[in-house]
């Protein structure tokens, strides 16, 4: 998920610290809090971000993938150029496995499924994205219903992005008729107001360690 939306507005950085989930000589896995950019934004007031905070302690840390400002969860941060290259290739090959937890409005009709809807930038509503069969890039999300809260009429779902388009999970769930709670960009006002934060968290990641070649996996429970 990219940071394109965050380059256009002032986004106050949370004071909540990041957490180190794993550390060795060549890479980190960290848990990013919500309401913190992964990298600096274009706006001069958007310089406080995850990577700059991490680099105070780990000067050689670099970004290989991103989470949106509003999204919390796990990120791999390489500490060497070799590891950066290796992890980048794993992402390009779609061999990195990851899933997210989200809370969405309504009850899903199916317990699990696959959403395949092409996505493109919405030129009329930048910085939003939209489903666009003509110009959109192929995008695929697997979903699984975890639970349904009838009293509140919302569902807890596990989302696995097979592709990694900007705002893919948010737009795909919206297209399915289930906007995410706290989503100030895509959810109707009443649904956006149901949570002080976007209810989307990168809970799990699995990849091959660039040096040992062992498969390693990490999880960080959703804070909601």
Automatic annotation (TrEMBL):
<keyword id="KW-0819">tRNA processing</keyword>
<feature type="domain" description="Pseudouridine synthase RsuA/RluA-like">
    <location>
        <begin position="27"/>
        <end position="174"/>
    </location>
</feature>
<dbReference type="InterPro" id="IPR006145">
    <property type="entry name" value="PsdUridine_synth_RsuA/RluA"/>
</dbReference>
<comment type="function">
    <text>Responsible for synthesis of pseudouridine from uracil.</text>
</comment>
<comment type="similarity">
    <text>Belongs to the pseudouridine synthase RluA family.</text>
</comment>
<dbReference type="InterPro" id="IPR006225">
    <property type="entry name" value="PsdUridine_synth_RluC/D"/>
</dbReference>
<keyword id="KW-0413">Isomerase</keyword>
<dbReference type="InterPro" id="IPR020103">
    <property type="entry name" value="PsdUridine_synth_cat_dom_sf"/>
</dbReference>
<protein>
    <recommendedName>
        <fullName>Pseudouridine synthase</fullName>
        <ecNumber>5.4.99.-</ecNumber>
    </recommendedName>
</protein>
<dbReference type="InterPro" id="IPR050188">
    <property type="entry name" value="RluA_PseudoU_synthase"/>
</dbReference>
<dbReference type="Pfam" id="PF00849">
    <property type="entry name" value="PseudoU_synth_2"/>
</dbReference>
